[in-house]
Amino acid sequence: MIHHVALETHPDDAEAAVRFWAILGFGEVDPPDTLSGATRWVERGGQQIHLLLTDEPVAPPQGHPAIVATDYDGTLERLFAAGHPIDPRPEHWGSPRAFVTGPGGHRVEVMQFAPL
Q1: Which of 23, 30, 49, 113 is deepest in the core (most CB within 10 A)?
Q2: Tens-place pLDDT, residues 81-93
Q3: Could you please report the per-residue DSSP string of 78-92?
Q4: Residue 52: inside a domain, yes or no?
Q5: Are 21 and 14 in contact (CB under 8 A)?
Q6: Could you tell me which InterPro entries the record lists for this protein (predicted)?
Q7: 28: in domain
Q8: pLDDT in tens, 18-45
Q9: Model-level pTM greater than 0.90?
């Protein structure tokens, strides 16, 4: 299991990013006091996304986190309803999957289940 991934995010996009990750089942948690004000953290089942607040964020053009959403269809519907276009892709490992772009330009792969 990966404990966390850090994604650079402009401070103006931070609130929208927290809402985006909430649709994927991540709830906001407090970062350590030493990082308070410089980051926003969200967590699901012990896995965290650290939103690093910076005025000049970089979103990798291809690199991305992949998130398993057991309520795959419902999750995609909620993302689309929140204004995030869905980019369906061919199944890999037998799992339905799609890409969505979050606030700040980060690509996120949503999968129905993890590779076996």
Answers
A1: 49
A2: 999 999 999 998 8
A3: HHHHTT--EEEEEEE
A4: yes
A5: no
A6: Glyas_Bleomycin-R_OHBP_Dase, Glyas_Fos-R_dOase_dom, VOC_core
A7: yes
A8: 999 999 999 999 999 998 889 999 999 9
A9: yes
What's the order of all strands across the beta sheet hosting 39-44?
4-9, 47-53, 39-44, 27-29
**Residue 80's domain spans which residues?**
4-111
Is residue 70 a part of any domain in this protein?
yes
3-class state of residue 93 by DSSP = coil
Asked if 26 and 42 touch (Cβ cutoff 8 Å), the reply is: yes
The CA-based angle 97-101-103, given to 5 degrees, is 145
Q: Are strands 27-29 and 39-44 parallel, antiparallel or unpaired?
A: antiparallel
Which of 5, 105, 8 lies closest to 56 in space, CA to CA? 8
Cα–Cα distance for residue pair 92/99, rounded to 1 Å: 13
